[in-house]
Amino acid sequence: MTSLQHAQPSSAHTRIQVPAWAWALTLLAIFALYLVAQDNGVVLAQFGDTAHEFFHDARHSLGMPCH
Questions:
Q1: I need a surface site. Which of 25, 39, 50, 60 has the fewest CB within 10 A?
Q2: Which domain of life is it from (predicted)?
Q3: What is the pTM of this model?
């Protein structure tokens, strides 16, 4: 006699392991988005006008209002 095995859904939750480098990359991306979208010279004032103008132009190219 052969036994037939039926696929039964598991009630246990599967945990997804996210590597530490993925969290670090996510935080870096969020900070970069902040610099492009929100910063009006507060963070970029240390780096001079070149960095400020670069991010200012990036804001315009993404269609974000900044004036």
A1: 50
A2: Bacteria
A3: 0.49
